[in-house]
Each structure stands twice: as C-alpha cells, then as structure tokens.
Design a protein that fits this description.
Elements lengths: L3 E7 L4 H13 L4 E5 L19 E4 L2 H6 L6 E5 L6 E2 L8 E7 L7 H4 L4 E4 L8 H16 L2
Parallel strand pairs: 1-2, 1-6, 2-3, 4-6, 4-7, 5-7
C-alpha cells in the first residue's frame, strides 16, 4: 500500500489511553503515534511492546506537533464539531495524520482550525479517545483494503 498514517492525542490525560492507542496502531498498521502536550506522569502501559515496531513521538504542544508534521500529510481531526462529517463518508488521505483530543476537553480550537478535515463517529455520547482512534484506524484499513 502506498502512503502512511500516524495517529495521536493532543493534551492526553491518562497513560492507559496512550498504551491502548499504541497497541491498536501497531495492530492496524499505523506508521507512528504521537502525543502533544501530555498531562500525565510517565507510566508503562504498552502491553505488547509496540514501541519496538511503531515509533512514538512526543511533542511539547499542539503547535509543536503541527510544525513537525511529515511533508505532504493531511490532518484529520476526530471530533464532534460543527465541521464534522460522519466517518462513514471519509475518503482517507494517502498520507494522513489523525488527531484526537484530550478525554475532557477535545482537540484545542487552534489545532482543530488547522485540520484539513474533521470527522466524527456518530454515537449518542463521546467515546473513549483510544477507542475512537482504534475505530478510525480500522475504517482506514477496511476502506483501503489493508
């Protein structure tokens, strides 16, 4: 398959969500994961040692992350927002960076405004951030045949 994808969380609050997302990213073929502006103390939660196979980048802030995106990547915000379209209608970019927000406050406005597209997973209430990321990665694989 051509292209690549990465996924991460801006302002993440809990290390368990990072570990779960990392495990899903590894299992579903993401090329890298990241956090930006994390708010938790370091703690090991990677039960399958995904760090051996899926690189992890840690940025100081959302702005730092946006400055260091890979060349040619399109950003996809995953958020319930007025700009959101249903995930079912998303045509995944060949080179994608999927951005999730913190469990309690979502994607910061300054990051959301710079996303090329924003999608949501239709549900009656917000999903756990790692679960939402896992669903998006599954959708990418299903639509792109990976």
């Amino acid at each position: 398959m051509r292209g690549f994808c990465g996924i991460g969380i801006v302002g993440v609050k809990t290390p368990l969500n990072v570990g779960t997302l990392w495990r899903s990213a590894y299992a579903m073929g993401a090329d890298y994961i990241f956090t930006a502006g994390r708010r938790y103390p370091h703690q090991a939660s990677d039960t399958v040692k995904a760090w051996r196979h899926t690189p992890y980048f840690e940025f100081e802030s959302g702005e730092d992350m946006l400055k260091h995106l890979p060349r040619g990547v399109l950003t996809v915000g995953i958020e319930q927002h007025r700009r959101s379209k249903p995930l079912s209608r998303l045509v995944h970019p060949e080179r994608a960076c999927y951005i999730l927000g913190a469990e309690d406050v979502g994607i910061p406005t300054y990051v959301l405004e710079r996303c090329h597209v924003v999608v949501e997973i239709p549900a009656i209430y917000c999903l756990n951030v790692a679960v939402a990321g896992s669903i998006v990665l599954y959708d990418r694989g299903a639509k792109l045949g990976t």
